[in-house]
Structure formats: structure tokens, C-alpha cells
Amino acid sequence: MSDWQDRPQVPPPSSQPIYPAEAGSGRENMQNNLSWLPPLGSPPARQASIGKLVDSGRKSGLASARGALIIAGLLLLVQGAIEYATTETQVEEALQKEVQKAGPGVQIDRAKYAEVKEQAIRVAHLFELGMVAVGIGFFVLAALVLKFPAGATIAGMVLYLGITAVLAFLNPMTLMGGWIWKIIILVSLTKGIQAGVALQRQERDDALAKAAPAPGV
């Protein structure tokens, strides 16, 4: 009996849960260790942010292409107008050079001279009016860039390369004239084509995704 009484008494269990003294700090440390994990829903948000950046880049490319088409149209209109206004003078100078090459003793048929001059002026005017028409075509394509991004930019590039090649064939010196503008226009149209093709591909994929049947249907 005395041995039982001499044993140390164990206190009764408390109704309150017993935590270590630093239990709260341990939970805080765990939260801090997991703080590097991305919150739920961040991948969609990140994808939306990336999508906005991509759309912004494409819109910027199309805007650059549209500006390049407008610049190309303006340059061609100005050139065509100047050529039209100075056609008669240029034709006269060209014919006078031919007369000088023939020599001082050669008799010139004035009626034939006037007929050749008139025909040359008529042909030159037709070509210059064609330049003006192409310039207007650039304005039309610039207005259609946002509606038909791929088609308008590709057509603009083909038209610009075509008219540049024709002018270079008639006068090779035109290749060196305004070369800075040529580089700007070509680079801007290239970016616009890339943006237009990517946008058209995205629209096609979105249309296919909408048309696809839902899973389990």
C-alpha cells in the first residue's frame, strides 16, 4: 500500500489539445515553403496574358503593313502625277537627242516628227495613268487589311514587287531612288504577311474547334 502511494501521480489528461510551443511557427514555415507554388487558376491567366501579347503583336504587324501600303500608294501617285505633268517635255527632249544623233545635214519631216511625238506622249500618259491606278489599288488593299489580313498583305507584296520590277526595267536608276522607303515597305509588308497568315490560321482552328462535336455526344 505504501509503495502505491509513493509512486508519482500522473496528472489527468486535459480536454484541450496539447501542441508544441512552436506549433504555430511550424505551420507558418510550411506555408512559406509552399509559397513558391503557383496559385490555382494561374495557367489560364498566364495563357490569357500570352494570348493578349500575341494578338497585340499581330495587330501591330497588320498596322505596319497597312501603313506601308498607304506609303506605297502615295509615292506612286506622286510619281505618276509628276511624270504625267512633265511627259511632253521629256518626250521632246528624247526626240531632240535622236535628231542630234542623225547629224546636222539630215532633213526632218515635221509632220512625221509631230506624229511620233503625239504617239509617244499618248503611250506615256497611258502608263502614267496605270501608275495612278496601281497607287489607288494600294489604298484599297490598305482598307482591306483588317478584313482580309492574309490576302490583302500578300496581294500588296505581289503588286509592289511587280510595279517595282516594271519601273526598274524601264529605268534601272529607279532601284536606287528612294531605297530607304523600299526597305521600310518590304519589311513592313513581310511582317504583315506573317501576322495575317497566323491570324487566318488561328481563325480556322477556332472555327474547327467550334464545329467539333462535344465529348460524349
Overview of this structure, please?
With 217 residues, the protein is an all-alpha fold. 76% of the residues lie in helices and 0% in strands. It has seven helices and no strands. The protein has helices at residues 2-6, 23-33, 42-85, 87-102, 110-144, 149-170, 179-211. Helix 3 (42-85) runs antiparallel to helix 5 and helix 3 (42-85) runs parallel beside helix 6. The radius of gyration is 39 Å and the shape is elongated. The termini are far apart.
Q: What percentage of residues falls in helices of 4 or more residues?
A: over 70%
Between the first and last Cα atoms, what is the distance in angstroms? 82 Å
Which secondary-structure class do the elements indicate?
mainly alpha
Characterize the overall form.
Answer: elongated
| Low-pLDDT regions | 18-24, 45-51
The helix-strand sequence is HHHHHHH
